[in-house]
Design a protein that fits this description.
homodimer; alpha+beta; Uridine Diphospho-n-acetylenolpyruvylglucosamine Reductase, domain 2; Uridine Diphospho-n-acetylenolpyruvylglucosamine Reductase, domain 3; Alpha-Beta Plaits; 4 domains; seven-stranded antiparallel sheet; five-stranded antiparallel sheet; FAD-bd_PCMH-like_sf (chains A, B); FAD (chains A, B); FAD-oxidored/transferase_4 (chains A, B)
């Protein structure tokens, strides 16, 4: 702690926990991207909102950049500290503060792990419905910073819909108490909504009030094998019309191969190019029969080649693992990731163009794709071919991403569906947001964070 | 049109429809508040987004204030033009532009009347669920500007949840195409959400893409008579736990008296202090029996004194009229209105304090209150006593509103639940939003509208 800025910080906050060993700097300085070399100044682990506020004020006075840090499971470099920033980890601020049965809300600190939020809601017979594979390590603060989506968006929407209130330390050091859990509040600009998805560039969430809902009725899980891509939208339209979908996820044979190699159990014999895992309400016989009849119709039409309905919770979990295990099974290969979206109606045309583009531009690399088809969200994972150097591989992927961004722009899509822009997609932001919008974003950032101390270089280049 | 600024506008846009007769200036210069004397410069009725953009650019160059104008059913003066502003009426931009069956969206111009949005959704077998009594004359653009709520918020949320995309001419003259109907789009600040509820101070909506949903299952409507205020929250908790509520609206005997005098039909004999109209899913016998059993339990507990379930659509409409007719029945008296909210859990304590405050501070005026209790939203209508001059009445009401605002602040509530701040509640904004938030709001406004030409003086005093 020989840095005079850190000495000043310790002088102001003698109880503040600070870390600065080489291992700690590396651990807290990176996220799941693994592309940048971590190089933070130090790690601060505040115990509460007051310490966060004092740190932000210190950072403003001494012009130190801060990287707000949650579970660091991000995939776009939003929590990377590679330029001497202070990492402000919310890890210790991980407590449940309140459950309100009448409002049906949980009030939590930002470092609370998503799985613990789920557990807390369930203990009270309720549901916090945002869910995705990183649930065991991502934090609710990070979910808010990226407006996290996941596998239940088709039924419940994104994180944005589940935030009733936020306490935030803005970049200017002010503590804001935004919306305070109100259902109706038409009293000027909704900064709660502005903060959601702002990737730590406007303020640091120090407390969140989350809406809860009734648990869904009993459901069933089905795995479908599809003969071709066109069948995908047909099956989706049929199932959406006849069932109450909770999830409708698809993946390719490439993805399946990796998951099976990673230890998952095959559920359908034979090889098919596309698969869907879907979950739907099955509270009574009528709904169960509707699901069977939809499946039979899809078979008759040739949209589905084979399928299986889980007969137990264990089997349902095994089917889900085929989809949810994909990211983990690919992780050792450190794939280059795209996370793109278009409107659902634009999916078929976009998919055709995208497939042609990927086949043409990645003649050697294996491309694994899967996604939340009911939300128009596709995840593309490109695996580095043996023998191609990392730098050359990234350069190739960035070139293809430029082409992909142009394709997305033609289809009115987004270069980031749910991972955020961070560092990884900064160069492509113009494909999704106009120059006028980006200028306004910079202006708004200037209002909230006049000295540009919060997560500089994320979302757009530092001034 | 002798004003040189208007001459310049006509020179730039020869086809632009401009109105300026005394009757037109009065008609378009006011909303439902009727407290300010309309005095606009003129009325512009653009035919499309290009004309709106040209008007905003003209206004920036010549420093002319613009009041964006929809159905002018607002209750807080947001659409009042009393200071020589140009009223920019979206009335001619009222067309349905697109229905997309796959995305389940309607794309509409901002001047489309809410009822026509409902009709268009219904024609396609779908539902646009935001609904309230002004549906026949309010415009969707105005709904967006105030984040309109209404009677189905308990089930479907506010307008905010139903906007998939917005085209907006910002105060700086730029045309923004925000979110473009995407379900997932984590690509920087969500200006769509920032614009919703901004009361025409950041930009003018020129096109909106609205999400639609499945129509609700068959429902039933019930009217309940309650013996006292404490029973209200008991019945609400019971009904919410056992039924799927679509609406849970309450009103007082005072409100009932006015509606009956206005031609509505009495549905329960006898006099009771409080009433609830609720609507709930009744798709099958199980749900219908659950409703009856909840009602019986409320009777047993003494929380309900009497009740009736509608046996036909006509009877359901008659029961609804008892609630929805209140505002209309009071309109000739030009009541002073408060529209406040607290968290649902804070309703009982707040209601007690509020009732004591109103009884003490309005010893002569009749106070009619009612509201959306399931959202924590109460509407208070104060009727001017005979013999009290209008000015003195308003002064008294503003004094009481100051006290009410302080009470709300103690309970973490909002001085505007769903009507917006406009001119009427500007003086009380500090009770709901902190000085730091208001400073940030002013900063954000400066970014979007650097010359302050959009709706100046609304939300906060002009600079």
């Amino acid at each position: 702690m020989s840095d005079p800025r850190l000495a000043e910080l310790s002088r102001r906050l003698p109880a503040l926990r600070l870390l600065a060993t080489a291992a700690e700097l590396e651990h807290y300085g990176r996220d799941w991207t693994r592309r940048w070399t971590p190089a933070p100044l130090a790690i601060a682990l505040p115990a509460g909102a007051e310490e966060v506020q004092a740190i932000v004020r210190w950072a403003n006075e001494l012009r130190v950049a801060i990287v707000p840090s949650g579970g660091r499971t991000g995939l776009s470099g939003g929590a990377v500290a590679a330029n001497g920033e202070l990492v402000l980890s919310l890890q210790r601020m991980n407590r449940l503060l309140d459950f309100n049965a009448v409002d049906r809300t949980l009030t939590v600190q930002p470092g609370m792990v998503l799985q613990h939020v789920h557990d807390a809601a369930r203990e009270h017979g309720l549901l916090y419905p945002v869910d995705f594979a990183a649930r065991g390590s991502c934090s609710i603060g990070g979910n808010i910073a990226t407006n996290a989506g996941g596998i239940r968006v088709i039924r419940y929407g994104n994180t944005r819909e589940w935030i009733a209130g936020l306490k935030v330390v803005a970049g200017n050091g002010e503590l804001l108490d935004l919306n305070r859990g109100l259902i109706k509040n038409s009293s000027g600009y909704d900064f709660r909504q502005l903060l959601i998805g702002s990737e730590g560039t406007l303020g640091i969430v120090v407390e969140a009030t989350l809406k809860l809902t009734n648990p869904p009725p009993p459901s069933q899980v089905m795995l479908l094998a599809l003969p071709d891509m066109d069948a995908l939208m047909q099956v989706f339209a049929l199932f959406r019309a006849r069932l109450v979908l909770q999830a409708f996820e698809f993946f390719t044979d490439h993805a399946l191969r990796h998951v099976l190699a990673h230890g998952a159990q095959r559920a359908i014999d034979g090889d098919y190019p596309y698969y869907v895992v879907c979950e739907f309400d099955a509270a009574d016989e009528r709904q169960q029969e509707a699901a069977l009849s939809a499946f039979e119709r899809a078979l008759e039409q040739g949209w589905v080649s084979d399928g299986v309905i889980a007969q137990s919770e264990a089997q349902a979990a095994a089917l889900w693992r085929l989809r949810e295990g994909i990211t983990e099974s690919l992780a050792p290969r450190r794939p280059y990731k795209n996370d793109v979206s278009v409107r659902v109606s634009a999916v078929p045309a976009f998919l055709h163009e995208m497939q042609a583009l990927l086949a043409r531009e990645y003649p050697q690399a294996e491309v694994v794709w899967f996604g939340h088809i009911g939300d128009g969200n596709l995840h593309i994972n490109v695996l580095r071919p043996d023998g191609l150097a990392e730098d050359a591989f990234i350069a190739q992927c960035e070139h293809v991403t430029t082409l992909l961004a142009a394709t997305l722009q033609r289809h009115g899509g987004s270069i980031s569906a749910e991972h955020g822009i961070g560092l990884v997609k900064r160069a492509y932001l113009e494909s999704t947001r106009s120059a006028a919008e980006i200028a306004l974003m910079r202006g708004v950032r200037q209002v909230f964070d006049p000295n540009g101390i919060l997560n500089p270089g994320k979302l757009f280049a530092a001034d």
